[in-house]
Amino acid sequence: MAKKQFKAESKRLLDLMVNSIYTHKEIFLRELISNASDAEDKLAYKSLTDDTVEVKRKDLKITIVPDKQMRTLTISDNGIGMSKEDLESNLGTIARSGSGQFKAGLAEDDKAADKIDVIGQFGVGFYSAFMVADQVTVISRAWGSEEAWMWQSDGADGYTVTQCEKDAPGTDIIMHIKASGEDENYDQYLETYKLQEIIKKYSDYIRYPIVMEVEDYRRKDKPADAPEDYKPEWETVKEWKTLNSMVPLWQRQKSKVKPEEYNAFYKEKFGDWQDPLAVIHTSAEGAVTYKAMLYIPAQTPYDFYTREYQKGLQLYSSGVLIMDKCADLLPDHFRFVRGVVDSADFSLNISREVLQHTRQLKVIATALEKKIKSELLKMQKEDREKYEKFWAAFGAQLKYGVVAEYGAHKEMLQDLLLFWSSKEGKNTTLAAYQDRMPEDQPYYYYACGESVDKIAKLPQVERILDKGYEILYCTEDVDDFVMKALGEVNGKQFKSVSDEDALPQTEEEKKAAEEKAEAGKDVLEAVKEALGDQVKNVRVSSILKSGACCLSADGPVSLEMEKYMSKLEGSDHPKADRVLELNPDAAPFAAIKKAVDAGDKDTVAKYAKLLYGQSLLMAGLPLEDPAEYAQMVCSLMV
Ligand SMILES: Nc1ncnc2c1ncn2[C@@H]1O[C@H](COP(=O)(O)OP(=O)(O)OP(=O)(O)O)[C@@H](O)[C@H]1O
Q1: Is 251 helix (H, G, I), strand (E, B) or coil?
Q2: Which domain holds residue 302?
Q3: How confident is the model at residue 356, as a pLDDT?
Q4: Which DSSP category does 351 fall into?
Q5: Domain CATH code at residue 267
Q6: Residue 511 and residue 466 share a domain
Q7: CATH code at 448?
Q8: Region entry C: which residue ranges (predicted)?
Q9: Which of 158, 195, 245, 591 is the most exposed place for a label (fewest CB within 10 A)?
């Protein structure tokens, strides 16, 4: 059976193209400039491969001319140009890419091909002109030909091609800009400031100069014979200006870029007024070829810990901006990193606004994550002061990273963490803590609280310190979760000093504790009865040394977790099972015992509430009835 060809309703197809592919109308300029750059590239390639073509790369340029009176915007190049046939086949057939064919025709070992970077591939970009123009005229003269041709279309009723005059080879794209309406301001595409802005945004790294005549308001030179009361005069001058930077910093050799250049680029591009803490300039060749320039900022952006903050790296393909914040390139724990990634290998979708396949992205993201980690580790080892600055700005983010996804990233992050060390009186890494551990120390110890000072005074801290063991003082809400998520590092587990089994007990110690618990049973029961449901249990403490009491929790929810969750939105948060721990060797225990033995229930209740209140305060939790507590304390004084 004979195969039939698909037919396309070209008018509808064009309409679809113009109205459905792109999200932003301003993209038309990026597309036409990319085409002009491709045309220059093809001519540059020709000059490298054909001795008869004498074109100097430095003479190649792209010119932008807005004309408000005529309502036209003209984009001209002095590149390869198009013959009548080229115009008909390239601009008359939607989705036919002369540039794509050109690229496909280059041999792999073609040395001259390395010097060019053709962008076009889909054969649709040109038609984006109809998003902003109601008529497009293309005047083109192919290189080496004397003839020039004019292609013209209003986008709806096909196109015409007629012969015309053109002085030199190259192409002029003349767009007649649509009239502005209520919904859309087309006039802006005739304003030089807007055109400059769009070019800077999307086409800053096009490798040929993009020039436009712009107005500048300047102070006139002071005349030599100016009178004493001379007032400065201003004038408006028109001058041709190159709008794009051309060579992106990240394409330059690392050794040739000065630190000031890196810093200036960062500040301008990412709107920070402080120099970054570190720059990572890296490239890779192989499965995916890319160049990246990443920065670690010195300060926390004001919205960093809010939902408004968007993570991501700028993504370029062959010097053209594709995405401003590509989130897939950064894991959440490194969301503070700013920077750019450039690769010609991305599978772009037809609008060049998103990427089609994420495989290349994944490869790059994984490599960058490792790079960022090793850069931070290097900073931690070689410039601790700087690292402390980094930690103050973004340490919490790394901790959230440890907790996220059930601890899936803990191995990536654990070496980067810092905690306050009871021994050092400053921040320590886990590795340094482990190096200092006495041989018999069974765990990494940590204690949570509001501040280092307050934690140091917690009664449950005492016996661990007395053993000569170091404690990590944790002052952030998330810390308890971090320790639970870390679980075990280098064969040692994390233990809260408030855990009953924080210090392993010998059989004798266990027996002695059981005996004490048995001996104090009537006190424990009386205190529990007095406190009722406020506590789940009252027990003889094995975590106190000289302190009289403290609060701890049984079960999976710790007091710190309860505090953390109570700050989250919503009302139904899990509560810790509170346990009041009493020290049978401390004087208050004996005082309660006396009251119990005397059958003085009121005094027992008062003492129980006092000890419970103290324990709540030390744990950083609110008293349930502060007035009653104050009264009870006062009553002790009279
Ligand atoms: N200024 C120009 N000079 C020479 N040829 C051009 C010019 N503009 C467009 N062309 C030709 O027209 C073809 C179609 O252009 P169009 O912008 O529609 O697609 P493309 O650039 O090939 O691909 P993409 O859709 O990926 O941008 C190009 O491939 C190129 O051959």
Answers
A1: helix
A2: 249-389
A3: 64
A4: T
A5: 3.30.230.80
A6: no
A7: 3.40.50.11260
A8: 564-638
A9: 158
- Residues 269 and 345 placed together within one structural domain of the fold: yes
* 407 found inside a domain: no
Domain co-membership, 445 together with 572 = no
Taking CA 156 as the corner, what is the angle to CA 152 and CA 157, rounded to the nearest 5 degrees?
Answer: 65
User: Is 5 among the domain residues?
Assistant: no
Most confident segment among 72-81, 254-263, 496-505: 72-81
Q: For residue 3, what is the DSSP state?
A: P
Q: Does the CA dihedral 164-165-171-175 come out positive or negative? A: negative
**CA-CA distance, 164 to 209, in Å (whole number)?**
27
Q: Is 99 in the pocket of ligand 1 (CB under 6 A)?
A: yes
260: number of CA atoms within 13 Å, CB side? 0
The reported pLDDT for the residue numbered 54 is 84
Residues 357, 322 share a domain: yes
**116 — pLDDT class (breaks 50, 70, 90):** confident
Residue 170 CA, closest ligand 1 atom number = 3
Number of domains the chain contains = 4
Phi, psi of 45 (to 5 degrees): -65, -45
Same domain, 482 and 585: no
Tokens of 548: 């009289």
- For CA atoms 215, 218, 221, 222, the dihedral sign is positive
**Same domain, residue pair 39 and 167:** yes
Expressed in angstroms and rounded, the spacing between residue 355 Cα and the centre of ligand 1 is: 20
For residues 370 and 286, state if they share a domain: yes
**Ligand 1 atom 21, closest CA:** 120
The answer to whether the beta carbons of residues 550 and 455 sit under 8 Å apart is no
- Residue 422 phi, psi dihedral angles, 5° rounding: -65, -30
CA count, 13 A, side-chain hemisphere, 383: 10
CATH no. for residue 44? 3.30.565.10
Tell whether ligand 1 has an atom less than 6 A from the beta carbon of residue 100: yes
Dihedral angle of Cα 357, 359, 363, 368, to the nearest 10 degrees: 30
Is 292 among the domain residues?
Answer: yes
Provide the pLDDT for residue 568.
74
Burial class from Cβ neighbours inside 10 Å (0-12, 13-18, 19+) for residue 300 reads middle
- Has residue 286 been placed in a domain? yes
* Region of 192 on the Ramachandran plot (φ > 0 left; ψ -120 to 50 alpha; else beta): alpha
Cα(98) to ligand 1 centroid in Å equals 6
User: Residue 11 above 80 pLDDT?
Assistant: no
pLDDT band at 465 (very low <50, low <70, confident <90, very high): very high
Six-digit token pair at 493? 């587990």
Classify 621 as helix, strand or coil.
Answer: coil
- Looking at residue 314, its pLDDT comes to 93
What CATH number should be reported for the domain holding residue 571? Answer: 1.20.120.790
- Strand, coil or helix: what is 214? strand
Residue 8 scores a pLDDT above 70: no
**What is the DSSP code string of 306-327?**
STT----EEEEETTEEEEEEEG
Which strand (E) or helix (H) includes residue 217? strand 210-219
Q: Report the phi/psi class of residue 219: left, alpha or beta, with left for phi > 0 and alpha for psi in -120 to 50.
A: beta
Taking the CA of residue 127 as reference, the ligand 1 atom at the shortest distance is 18
170 CB within 6 A, ligand 1? no
Strands 62-67 and 549-554: unpaired
